[in-house]
Design goal:
By secondary structure, the chain is mostly helical. It has a single domain (about 25-140), classed as E3 ubiquitin-protein ligase SopA (Pectate Lyase C-like). The protein has two helices and two strands; from the N terminus they run αββα. The radius of gyration is 15 Å and the shape is globular.
């Protein structure tokens, strides 16, 4: 997908939220969004199931209650992103920048990251498989 195509989807989503004509939900399941700029967008409840967001710029994006099931978020800039209540099961975050991101009540299940990637993140009430988060912290401390 090209940046202009994504911008059209995001604009239609904004019209949907504002209940204006031509608005639609943001359904980007299986989309190739590699390297695109999604920063500072309101994409609450958007569907990114299986999407490829490798290297995308997502700084300060609002993805509250979004579905990112099995999404590729490798090397993404997610600093200051809001992922509260998001479905992140099976999402891949390797190399992602997550400082100050909010994962409160997100459904993560596993987070195979180094502790330094989690600096100043909010993980309040996030669902993890036992041991994954502890292992990331332990690895960072050794």
């Amino acid at each position: 997908m090209l940046q202009a195509d994504f911008d059209s989807v995001a604009d239609a989503r904004l019209r949907f939220v504002e209940r204006r004509p031509g608005g639609t939900r943001a359904v980007l399941a299986s989309a190739n969004l590699q390297g695109l700029d999604l920063a500072q967008r309101n994409l609450r409840e958007a569907d990114f199931t299986g999407a490829n967001l490798f290297g995308a710029r997502l700084a300060a994006v609002d993805l509250e209650r979004a579905t990112l099931f099995c999404a590729v978020l490798r090397e993404c800039d997610l600093r200051h992103a809001n992922l509260k209540g998001a479905d992140l099961r099976g999402a891949v975050f390797r190399g992602a920048k997550l400082a100050h991101a909010r994962f409160a009540k997100a459904n993560i299940r596993s987070l195979p990251l180094q502790g330094d990637q989690l600096q100043n993140t909010d993980l309040t009430g996030a669902g993890f498989v036992a041991g994954q988060f502890a292992r990331a912290l332990r690895d960072d401390l050794s």
